[in-house]
UniProtKB/TrEMBL annotation:
<dbReference type="InterPro" id="IPR053847">
    <property type="entry name" value="DUF6928"/>
</dbReference>
<protein>
    <submittedName>
        <fullName>DUF6928 family protein</fullName>
    </submittedName>
</protein>
<dbReference type="Pfam" id="PF21997">
    <property type="entry name" value="DUF6928"/>
</dbReference>
Length: 204
């Protein structure tokens, strides 16, 4: 499956324990986060949806899921990998006190993965790889889920073309560090990350 994803996901606690059946969204908190991200814009709330629909928003849309111990934010501006994208990522990472936050951007045409990892709002890992250009950014200590992917490069292999699939790399990070399970995997408890509820906003 080819994924396009522009997602920030924070949790206060182990993701496998935080993300579980029965999570109740807080629409007022979601609206406050959305408007805090874009204070100069007019944002119109246009209803509710689920993460499966929200992963790759239209350019004039923003999706936010706010919960007691978790935050999800989907914004295609993350794909730009510019100062504004870093601002959005930093803001999401700091919105939930004491949380750990992963920011994942995948694109099915460019075949690249941008991933940032924060703990208590501090950026600890920033990595950007593409199938054609190899390793573009590799800053901070590698996370456990990354290590198998780097074995060939660490052993002396060239990084162009990249010796691993960027999508598999990103999804492995999401499973281990963001959700505690595969983003498209329904657990024995019945919980499926793609069914998480989010609030939908439109820039007008």
């Amino acid at each position: 499956m080819a994924w396009s994803v522009a997602l920030a996901c924070a949790s206060a606690g182990e993701p496998a324990e935080v993300f579980r059946p029965g999570l109740a969204p807080d629409p007022d908190a979601a609206a406050a986060i959305a408007r805090g991200l874009y204070p100069a814009d007019t944002l119109t709330e246009t209803g509710d949806t689920v993460l499966d629909f929200a992963l790759w928003p239209y350019e004039d849309e923003l999706f936010v899921g706010a919960f007691e111990r978790a935050l999800l934010l989907c914004d295609r501006r993350l794909f730009c990998l510019d100062d504004d994208a870093r601002r959005i990522a930093d803001t999401a990472a700091a919105a939930l006190p004491g949380s750990r936050c992963g920011v994942l951007v995948l694109h099915n045409v460019i075949r690249g993965c941008w991933f940032r990892w924060y703990e208590s709002g501090a950026l600890l890992r920033d990595v950007f790889v593409t199938a054609e250009d190899g390793v573009v950014v590799d800053q901070g200590g590698r996370l456990p889920a990354e290590r198998p992917f780097w074995e060939a490069i660490d052993g002396g292999a060239a990084d162009v073309p990249l010796p691993f699939d960027p999508e598999e790399f990103g999804l492995a990070l999401a499973e281990a560090h963001m959700f505690g399970r595969g983003i498209a995997d329904r657990g024995e408890d019945g919980f499926l990350p793609l069914e998480l509820p989010l609030r939908r906003f439109k820039h007008t």
